[in-house]
Amino acid sequence: MANDNGVQHPAADYEIKKARLSAQMKAGSSVRLSKETSNLFRSRVNGGEKILSARDFNRVLRVNKDEGWAEVEGMTTYEDFVNQTLKFGLMPAVVPQLKTITIGGAATGVGIESTSFRYGLVHETLIEMEILLSSGDTVVCNKYEHADLFYGFPNSYGTFGYALKLKVKLIPVKLYVKIEHARYDNSETYFQALGTACRSNFDFVDGVMFGPGEMYVTTGKFVDQSPFVSDYTYLDIYYKSIRVKKEDYLSVHNYLWRWDTDWFWCSNVFKAQKPVIRRLLGKKRLNSAFYGKIMKWDKKYRFSERFFPLFGIHEEWVIQDVDIPLDNAPKFVEFFFREIGIKPVWVCPIGSFDKSVRFPLYPLSPDKLYVNFGFWGPVRTDKEKGFYNKLVESKVSEFVGRKGLYSDSFYTEEDFWKIYNKPAYDLLKQKYDPQGKLKNLYDKCVRKL
Ligand SMILES: Cc1cc2nc3c(=O)[nH]c(=O)nc-3n(C[C@H](O)[C@H](O)[C@H](O)COP(=O)(O)OP(=O)(O)OC[C@H]3O[C@@H](n4cnc5c(N)ncnc54)[C@H](O)[C@@H]3O)c2cc1C
User: Fold this and answer.
1) Strand pairing category for 315-325 and 204-211
2) Which residues does a 6 A CB cutoff place in the pocket of ligand 1?
3) How would you write 155-189 as a 3-class SS string?
4) Which of 38, 83, 37, 39 minimizes the C-alpha distance to 60?
5) How far is the CA of 153 from the centre of ligand 1 (A)?
6) For the residues 337-363, what does the mean pLDDT come to?
7) d(CA 378, CA 343)
8) What does pLDDT average to over the chain?
């Protein structure tokens, strides 16, 4: 991999891998993707599909520093992607916080981070994609060619095809990020401040709500020099620092991965925030990939599901990311802390980068600022299965928001298709996967087929 003047991974390598995958696709009557890592939080029923191994599509092919873009294979993790671009003083315009999220997964699964107030969701940072269709053919799509697929791919979760190569917008970085945490104790002023921060010249904006009376807006700015540099990759914990520090400095690398070490704060579930456990685990295991493996193991063997009820504890996991228009955010927060009560909550503003484009399967109003609320935790319950998740789904609709589909969904088929644009989906499905070799979005995301 090198600057655009020298391509270090010859195009031929990519073409050979593509031909192999294409042949496998042609040979299978129903297929599913296999990759090294996953951040999917809905377990799927194994339907005996042919496994299409795309694990080796994991390289950054080119970085064009002058024009600010990179060409990268679809299963490349953001950790590897960032490592390559930082060598050139650049980063992808939006870098989702978990190191193992891949560019293809984030493109189809609505990736987000603290630059999203300016650059939009990950799919807005894409310039072009090469997609493997269920026929085994590949198509290049961008705003001119196969534009319907290019704009329809976000939130399709691989149900039209798999992105094998993507051209992605990069932005320049400096050595450090200066961050400031400002505290607010009521949601009206909090969201006003969040809106103001997004209209200012910060490079990064996000926030954390520790409760209805303790909410922080965190702003970040690239700087060349720093009076000190903090490190939250081992014993110190980033989210805890927000409550005690007003100002902080991190290297760009550590800023981008500030949430990964403790999986935001979810490492607490595994007691991994206790110094003794951190030392026992060691720096190498303090990351989202490690916790994710434990969670998946737990889900697979239904350990917590069977163990806690023995002690009279009944829980429903609510793992969701929802996008609510800024104007409705205070009402959503009021509902959320009253009825769901998971704490803390991650807050990330989203704006549209190009107000002239529309993404039919994940339509956000281009003139509005949205707020992503991320909450991942158990709620004590004596209600029927899915009660709290369904409540969140209905409130998201009431407040004219959107919900990501990476974890459990409970929508009826009718409600789902009202929200996720059935007419547009059907047209694309008919055109790009007419045989239905890949799953349909409702079957995949709600029925977990
Ligand atoms: C606890 C938790 C927190 C999260 N927090 C964030 C966050 O803060 N920021 C953020 O951006 N996202 C977050 N996510 C969501 C994440 O970005 C999405 O789930 C994303 O799709 C994961 O990408 P992945 O590469 O891990 O894909 P996977 O989990 O492997 O796959 C996700 C889906 O995308 C499909 N897919 C994967 N690769 C491709 C491809 N190349 N082409 C077509 N389809 C493909 C798969 O078939 C699958 O349906 C979070 C998820 C969890 C579970």
Assistant:
1) unpaired
2) 33, 35, 37-41, 74, 96-98, 101-102, 104-106, 108-109, 111-112, 157-158, 162-163, 319, 374, 376, 406-407
3) CCCCCCCEEEEEEEEEEECCCEEEEEEEEECCHHH
4) 83
5) 13
6) 96
7) 10
8) 93
Closest ligand 1 atom to residue 259 Cα is 8
Tens of pLDDT along 62-102?
Answer: 999 999 999 999 999 999 999 999 999 999 999 999 999 99
Q: How many residues does the chain have?
A: 449
Contact 41, 407 (CB under 8 A): yes
* DSSP-based three-state secondary structure for 77: strand
> What pairing do the DSSP bridges indicate for beta strands 31-34 and 126-132?
unpaired
Q: Are the beta carbons of 394 and 418 closer than 8 angstroms? A: no
CA 214 and chain centroid, separation: 25
- Both tokens of 87, joined, read 């060598």
Q: Enumerate domains of the chain plus CATH numbers.
A: 11-173+432-445 (3.30.465.10)
The amino acid that residue 318 corresponds to is V
Closest alpha carbon to 95 in 70, 122, 58: 122
Pocket test for ligand 1, best of 39, 131, 375 (most atoms within 8 A of CB): 39
The closest residue, in CA terms, to atom 52 on ligand 1 is 39
- 226 pLDDT higher than 80: yes
The Å distance, Cα 39 to ligand 1 centre, comes to: 5
CB 348 within 8 A of CB 114: yes
Confidence at residue 27, expressed as pLDDT on a 0 to 100 scale: 87
Copy the structure tokens of residue 324.
């609510």
Pocket test for ligand 1, best of 290, 389, 406 (most atoms within 8 A of CB): 406
The answer to whether residues 323 and 364 touch, using CB atoms and an 8 Å cutoff, is yes
- Which H or E element spans position 60? strand 60-64
Kindly indicate the confidence band of residue 369, based on its pLDDT and cuts at 50, 70 and 90.
very high
CA of 323 to the centre of ligand 1 (A): 16
Q: What is the mean pLDDT of residues 126-132?
A: 98
What is the 55 CA–ligand 1 centroid distance (Å)?
15
Ligand 1 atom nearest residue 161's Cα: 43
Percent of all residues in the chain with a pLDDT value above 70, rounded to a whole number? 94
Give pLDDT tens digits for 227-257. 999 999 999 999 999 999 999 999 999 999 9
- For ligand 1, the distance from its centroid to the CA atom of residue 106, given in whole angstroms, is 5
The model carries a pTM of: 0.93
Pick the more confident residue, 46 or 291.
Answer: 291
